[in-house]
Design brief:
This protein is of the alpha+beta class and 371 residues long. It is built from eleven helices and 19 strands. The strands form four sheets. Strands 10, 11, 12, 13, 14, 17, 18 and 19 form an eight-stranded mixed beta sheet that branches. A six-stranded mixed beta sheet has the order 6-4-5-7-8-9, covered by helices on one side. A three-stranded antiparallel beta sheet has the order 1-2-3.
């Protein structure tokens, strides 16, 4: 009997979480299943039965029946004896064009990497760097070469952005509207850190808060409201967790806000749907270096007209919620799985249903909402 290829395992309380890279799914398993999937390829069932019986001081026949049932379940999930190899997609490595003579713009923080744009058009470079936000730029830290994206004018197409893939745009306006999405795509393909679908701020009192949730949950609107209330800005979309240090890695990109959100916030941005943090508050501070520990995670759910309802999640529910918001588990594998599980076990997670993002931000800052 063999453990299937592509599995990552993280012990959690009395069992474990398993990520299957073949199906990109996460399973919660008990202690016996965890023992069967421990760090070895070939599994000796008798050794597992002996170990479980010894530790639990239970009858061998009873343990054997439970182990046999566990094997059947794991096989049905594809976690045992699956023979097919598992392919894991690679990161976006950047442009492979030989355009080393073209000018290069400033470096932009994308979690644990730096991204620069290169183009023969200096005015285009300046517009790209301005649009991504001048406060997101950092000086050369000497920590390795940045990833390079080429933007090249091509007759009959307009502008072509070259990374590991290519994107064509008819003009600069079309490029700028799609550019934050292209950079997001680069960010979520990380193999080194776990990427959570979450925003992040540091409150005036120094609390580091993550705001996590599905699309349409009001996550970005709440982040924007917190920035208007005086918070420092990490990101509205993708937060990194470094498996080596447990610290949070920021990605201070333009916020994605629709017209309704901008009306609620009283903001008239230059280019929807992308809003610079400086358009929310002129003196906003951008966080561009690793920070931690996180004081709390908020899972907002916006419902028009809803009264505020706050629920503190237990550890099991917190882990499930945060693992469901992890964007790149197939790439970051076991280090990322362990990092998110450890993070969930150590960090308060609160679900808040509300009907007013600005009022909720004010309540968070004032301490009215317990987090």
């Amino acid at each position: 009997m063999r453990r299937s290829a592509g599995l990552s395992l993280a012990e959690f309380r009395d069992g474990a979480y398993v990520h299957d890279a073949a199906t990109d799914t996460i399973h919660r398993i008990g202690p016996i299943a965890g023992a069967l999937l421990a760090d070895r390829d070939v599994i000796d069932v008798r050794d597992v039965i002996d170990a479980v019986a010894t530790v639990s001081r239970r009858d061998h026949a009873e343990v054997t029946a439970e182990v046999t049932a566990g094997i059947d379940t794991l096989r049905s999930l594809g976690l045992l004896d699956r023979l097919e190899p598992v392919w894991v997609p690679g990161p976006i490595s950047g442009s492979e064009l030989d355009r080393h003579g073209d000018p290069v713009g400033v470096a932009h923080v994308v979690h644990d990497r730096r991204l620069v744009f290169r183009s023969p058009d200096l005015a285009l470079l300046a517009e790209i760097d301005r649009y991504l936000g001048d406060a997101t730029t950092v000086p050369d830290t000497g920590d390795g070469e940045p990833v390079v994206f080429d933007v090249v004018p091509e007759p009959g197409v307009g502008l072509v952005l070259h990374a590991a893939e290519e994107w064509g745009f008819p003009d600069i306006d079309a490029l700028l509207i799609q550019l934050p999405g292209v950079v997001n795509d680069f960010a979520v393909r990380s193999h080194t850190i776990a990427i959570l679908h979450a925003g992040g701020v540091v409150t005036p009192a120094g609390q580091l808060l993550l705001i996590s949730g599905d699309a349409e949950s009001g996550k970005s609107t709440l982040v924007a409201a917190l920035v208007q209330q005086g918070c420092d800005y990490l990101t509205d979309e993708l937060i990194g967790i470094d498996p080596r240090t447990g610290k949070v890695l920021p990605f201070p990109k333009p916020l994605e806000l629709d017209e309704t959100s901008c009306d609620v916030l009283g903001v008239i941005p230059d280019h929807l749907p992308n809003v610079l943090a400086s358009e929310l508050r002129r003196d906003v501070a951008m966080v561009t270096t690793p920070v931690g520990p996180v004081d709390a995670v908020i899972l907002p759910t916006y419902r028009a007209g809803a009264e505020r309802e706050t629920t503190r999640l237990d550890v099991e529910a917190a882990a499930k919620a945060l693992l469901n918001q992890t964007m790149n588990m197939r790439r970051v594998r076991e280090p990322g799985l362990r990092a998110v599980c450890d993070f969930a076990a150590a960090t308060p997670v609160t679900r808040i249903v509300h009907g007013d993002s600005v009022a909720l931000a004010d309540a968070i800052i004032s301490g009215e909402v317990p987090i």
